[in-house]
Amino acid sequence: MCRWLAYSGEALKPAELILDAQHSLVAQSLNSPLGAETVNGDGFGFGWYPEGTKAGSTPALFHSTEPAWNDENLRELTNSILSPLFFGHVRAAGGPPIQQTNCHPFRYENWMFMHNGFLDGFAKMKRDLTFSVDESLYPLIHGTTDSEVMFYLALTLGLQDDPIGAMTKTVQRIEEVGESKGIRFPMQGTIALSDGATLWAFRYSTSGRSRSLYHSVAIPELREMYPDAARLEVFGDKAKVVVSEPLNDIPGAFVEVAESTVAILTDAGYHHEPFMARADD
């Protein structure tokens, strides 16, 4: 459906990953070997926390309905700013129209959210799910995607206090509504979520066949493995990236996130926890 990346670490020009990497996000918008669709040209989004902003600050967003490979503003922007945490997303529209309000990432206060995948049978579930969103948040849903409804449902269910718990309740609600509508596999996707300090990356689907998801190996480890790799000099020791598919072909540079898992990335490193794990997993 889409491709995305999320970076956390020392302040970096986002173009290093979005434009300049071997298999950058823009390259994946043209040719995505691991994606459900090869081309992801139905708009894009870029969200970032500016360098030097305080914890709890609101991130900035740039959305466009242009294909990412055809937007000079994206090149100008990502080469001109520094950010310690940013999201990038290229879209392959699976039904909802191509419009800026349907481009990821989505934002609420200091939180950003993006999704690759879909809610199967969303047309049947939409009324029940949107009516589950708190009435104070409902007017903030500006687009028509299942992803945005999922984000505001998670906010309703306590995202700001307990991100993993809220996402668990959100998926449970989706599956509950899906089951009531006769939808066998309602949830599919990978999700990135951040409050500006921590980055959570979820991989889960009801069918157990989720979209691909990887994160980078720690930079100090990579420097030990590849001491002559000049490309690594761009990144600080805390640099980490979560991606729909690897940004390069360097063996050992990326680790696959397992099914029914959330990867949690902070300045201290990363670890994995089970997410919505089933007894047969």
Automatic annotation (TrEMBL):
Keywords, sorted A to Z: Glutamine amidotransferase, Hydrolase, Transferase
Record GO terms (molecular function): hydrolase activity; transferase activity
Organism: Leifsonia shinshuensis
InterPro entries attached to this UniProt entry: EgtC-like, Gamma-glu_amide_hydrolase, GATase_2_dom, Ntn_hydrolases_N
Protein name: Glutamine amidotransferase
Enzyme class of the recorded protein, top EC level: hydrolase
Residue ranges annotated for the Glutamine amidotransferase type-2 domain, each copy included: 2-281
EC code: 3.5.1.118
